[in-house]
Amino acid sequence: MSGLDEQVTNEPWRVGVLFSQSGFMALIEDTQFRGTMIAIEEINANGGINGRELQPVIYDPASDNSLFRAYAHRMLSKDGLSTIFGCYTSSSRKAVLPVIERLNGLLWYPTLYEGFEYSPNVIYTGAAPNQNSMALCEYLTERYGSRFYFVGSDYVYPRESNRIMRELLQRNGGEVVGESYVPLNSKRHDFNPIMRDIKQAQPDVIFSTVVGIGTVYLYQSFNDFNLDPKQTPIASLTTTEAEIQAMGSDVGEGHITAAPYFQSIEGGSNRAFVERYRRRYGDSESTNMCAEAAYFQVKIFAGALEMTNSLQTDVLRPMVLGQSFEAPQGTVSIDPRCSHANVWSRIGKVNRGGQFEVVQQSLSAVNADPYLVGMMRPGMA
User: Fold this and answer.
1) What domains lie within the chain, and their CATH numbers?
2) Over the chain, what is the mean pLDDT?
């Protein structure tokens, strides 16, 4: 369908939404679904895009990469869609990527990831390693020590993220004193032998790339073994307010995460976002970096669609590149050089209330460098 054809219809703009609302990844992916739906509801409440509502076509891949692939194919080949908001894990992204590229769709991916990827069919709106890992490594080695123990879920993101962190740590004169991986569908008892190994290795920091419900079990096991976050914190790129709420704020207190966004940050845009989220999902619910990225990417998409009046990937994508938006985290933009978002860099420590107190942050959004060409630490305040 051409842009001209699309201008003369009042039919809704149909887009795909592909996040797990069941299975072991639902804890975090459901928050991405929520952020997506809040943005769509806001857009429709304000008259839609060029007078046409956004209509989400929703599938639940149930934390199964084969279903991610199958539903992505169905969306693009049978449902007549071209734009999909979806995926949390890198393994699910890589599962759908061949389908997205072959059928020339556009995937909006709102999750931090390991970097070292570029596709003209993906807009990456989560943090790349230069926007989280680099600052976190320096912060930890300066304040806690340089002996790290790595714990991760067993798939591509944790292994690649740990490879990057290992290199950063070595550049700072540190060392990895242990490394363990658990299945994506890990249980609480899977972490007990790891905690025994950690107690023996006595690292300064536990660096976690565990995802999903396994994150909750990791921190609870840490607590069961009477380890002290003041001495040996768990530091993560993936632990958000959602996992802290699930594990209990007393369990999460004192641990550290690097992220572009925390619910606790100041600013009118974030206050409004938190209020809308709570009004929609309940006063006890917290926003997080994944929900926030899922939210702002829909808003950037809407701005580009308003200008192109076309969902065709080859028409829409060039207009997306360079777009900026006043997101809850601050002003963000899509870097035209790499199709990644320029996002903020922040480090937060969990307080007794289950929220992150920001202990360090960048002065502005950090330009995406997914291939770590610069290897320069962003300016922090």
Assistant:
1) 3-128+266-342 (3.40.50.2300), 130-264+345-361 (3.40.50.2300)
2) 95
